[in-house]
Write a structure and sequence with these properties.
The complex is a heterodimer. Chain A is mainly β. Helix content of chain A is about 0%, strand content about 45%. Chain B is built from no helices and nine strands. The chains are: A mainly beta, B mainly beta.
């Protein structure tokens, strides 16, 4: 089955540590996205990538970094500079960035930093 | 990006038709309207997209009046499993990102 996988489902870290969230897709999509969702809120875009070796900042990129070395992988690193990292993180992909509305989402990773 | 306004929450009963209206007064000529559904602790799922008049698929219908300042998502004969948050998004054809608001929490009661 084609889809998007995110691992792990739950992640716990101590404050001051960097942590990397995994996102893999086998849909052969060019575009990939990372969102953050806080309780009772909508999704906010962190970064997106239109193609391999390219990525653009979204609305809340500060304290985060990404890489896109392979088409199927788009890992997100939450750095110690992110003030409030505890949140639900969602990865998504679309066939091309021009079809941004047709995003397929992964199951999400719930990060807790104490 | 056009700002959208939708009700925070709605209740319905099983078997009823549910209509969720979204207001987008400053929608631009090349903007599209799309709706997503999100269950707790899951990623959103694309439901339907439209530009004008009416669009229907196997899940829902989307009604867009001529002035396009609002749109209505219609879910026929809802069941308990339709309980979710529904997001209305407006984006231009050249957009590279989507903006999600807080959505509408639909609760279907037995």
């Amino acid at each position: 089955d084609g889809g998007i996988t995110q691992s792990p489902k739950y992640l716990f870290r101590k404050e001051g540590q960097n942590v990397t969230l995994s996102c893999e897709q086998n849909l052969n999509h060019d575009a990939m996205y990372w969102y953050r969702q806080d309780p009772g809120q909508g999704l906010r875009l962190i970064y997106y990538s239109q193609i391999v070796n390219d990525f653009q900042k979204g609305d809340i990129a500060e304290g985060y970094s990404v890489s896109r070395e392979k088409k199927e992988s788009f890992p997100l690193t939450v750095t110690s500079a992110q003030k409030n990292p505890t949140a639900f993180y969602l990865c998504a992909s679309s066939p091309i960035v021009e079809r941004v509305y047709e995003q397929y989402f992964g199951p999400g990773t719930r990060l807790t930093v104490t | 990006l056009a700002k959208t306004t939708q009700p925070i929450s709605m209740d319905s009963y099983e078997g009823q038709e549910v209509n969720i209206t979204c207001s987008h007064n400053n929608i631009a000529t090349n903007d599209y309207i799309t709706w997503y559904q999100q269950f707790p602790s899951q990623g959103p799922r694309f439901i339907i997209q439209g530009y004008k008049t009416k669009v229907t698929n196997e899940v829902a219908s989307l009604f867009i009046p001529a002035d396009r300042k609002s749109s209505t998502l219609s879910l026929p004969r809802v069941s308990l499993s339709d309980t979710a948050v529904y997001y209305c998004l407006v984006f231009s054809g050249s957009a590279r990102q989507l903006t999600f608001g807080s959505g509408t929490q639909l609760t279907v009661l037995p």
